[in-house]
């Protein structure tokens, strides 16, 4: 939620291929509306590399009535679980962190959780 009462939320998984979409559902809320407006993510900050801080995690949502909403985001307290678990070869790399969101000049703080498989990550140099 932002100070004005606007808000958003979503859960989305990266597409398997360009032609094969996965789960993607969200909402946008504007003050005065009596209900959430359904939305889908059209641009998401998928986890592709491990960034120590200040990562751009901006996103774009498209509502069911065709409006596009661009929301800026920057990490400020990221954590990564990148431990390799041979006994669980499908266990992903996890990211959780605090995010500074900005929507048309209005600022709010929230969080983001995302994951990706080890072979999909660009690893930082030691």
Task: Summarize the SSE layout with pairings.
Blueprint lengths: L6 E6 L11 E6 L7 E7 L15 E5 L4 E14 L11 E11 L2 E11 L10
Antiparallel strand pairs: 1-2, 2-3, 3-4, 4-5, 5-6, 6-7
Can you describe this structure in just a few lines?
This protein is mostly beta strands and 126 residues long. Helix content is 0%, strand content 48%.
Descriptive terms for the model:
126 residues; mainly beta; 7-stranded antiparallel β-sheet
Written description of the protein model:
The structure is a single chain. By secondary structure, the chain is mainly beta. The chain contains no helices and seven strands. A hairpin with a 7-residue loop joins β2 and β3. The model has no long low-confidence stretch (mean pLDDT 91).
Helix content percent band? under 10%
Tell me the number of strands. Answer: 7
Overall radius of gyration: 16 Å
Strand neighbour order, sheet with most strands: 1-2-3-4-5-6-7
Enumerate the spans where pLDDT stays under 50 for 5 or more consecutive residues: none
């Amino acid at each position: 939620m932002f100070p004005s009462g606007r808000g958003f939320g979503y859960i989305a998984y990266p597409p398997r291929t360009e032609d094969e979409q996965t789960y993607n559902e969200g909402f946008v809320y504007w003050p005065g509306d009596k209900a959430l407006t359904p939305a889908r993510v059209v641009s998401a900050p998928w986890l592709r590399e491990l960034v120590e801080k200040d990562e751009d995690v901006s996103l774009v949502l498209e509502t069911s009535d065709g409006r596009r909403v661009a929301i800026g985001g920057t990490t400020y307290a990221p954590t990564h679980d990148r431990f390799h678990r041979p006994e669980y070869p499908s266990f992903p790399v996890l990211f959780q962190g605090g995010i500074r969101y900005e929507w048309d000049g209005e600022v709010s703080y929230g969080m983001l959780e995302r994951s990706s498989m080890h072979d999909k990550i660009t690893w930082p140099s030691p």
